[in-house]
Amino acid sequence: MILPIVAYGNPVLKKKAKDITKDYPKLDELIENMWETMYGAHGVGLAAPQVGLPIRLFVIDPSPFADDEELTEEERKQLTGLKKLFINPVITEETGDEWAFSEGCLSIPDVREDVFRQPDITIEYVDENFKAHTETYTGIAARVIQHEYDHIEGILFTDKLSSLKKRLIKGKLNNISKGKVDVDYRMKFPNLKKGR
Fold first, then answer.
1. CA of 73: how far to CAs of 67, 79, 155, in Å?
2. What is the reported pTM?
3. Per-domain residue ranges for the chain?
4. DSSP letters of 157-191?
């Protein structure tokens, strides 16, 4: 089932999410719904807070970036078929020189800005069977993970912008929170009584 995506301005997007246990109610159904919601909105990642749940869980599939001609063969290979679920993740290391990349967010439609992040990460997490993993990612794959990880930490990509950039997009952000945005997926706006 496709869930409505929570729009900018909803307090759940600014909350630090909580770990879950394997007996979390209807976990399999939630995971399935999150995949369906992400693909339905043409996203490459989706975190539980974006569907209104303050829990440490997100899904990613950055494979659409594999078509980018500027990528190396190794980067392309890492992105192709990288469909992953992360439960209770912790980024244990971020290394390398920060680089800029234009980011967007399903909760903040029609806003794209350059965000600086480190290129290499190590992350510990459990999968849907609560089996523990420690993995290292680089480049765009790392960036997509960092973006979704920020969501479960209560951080939005717009929080990482300069104060000038924040002032320039303030009007757009206010409009999003009021539902004055045109999207082709279901959203739930904080300043409206009903989602649309």
1. 11, 10, 32
2. 0.94
3. 5-188
4. GGGGS-HHHHHHHHHHHHHHHTT----SS-EE-TT
Is 151 annotated to bind a ligand? Reply is yes
In this structure, which amino acid lies at residue 122? Answer: T
User: Both tokens of residue 169?
Assistant: 């997009």
Q: For tokens 């394997």, what's the residue?
A: 22
CATH architecture of 5-188: Alpha-Beta Complex (3.90)
User: Would you state the structure tokens that stand for residue 93, as one six-digit string?
Assistant: 């290391």
pLDDT digits (tens, 9 = 90+) for 60-105: 999 998 888 788 888 888 888 899 999 999 999 999 999 999 999 9
Q: Is 73 a catalytic residue?
A: no
For residue 105, say whether it is annotated as part of any ligand binding site.
yes
* CA–CA distance, 55 with 71 (Å, rounded to integer): 33
Tokens at residue 89, please? 């993740």
Q: What is the pLDDT of residue 191?
A: 66
Q: Which of 36, 98, 135, 148 is catalytic?
A: 148
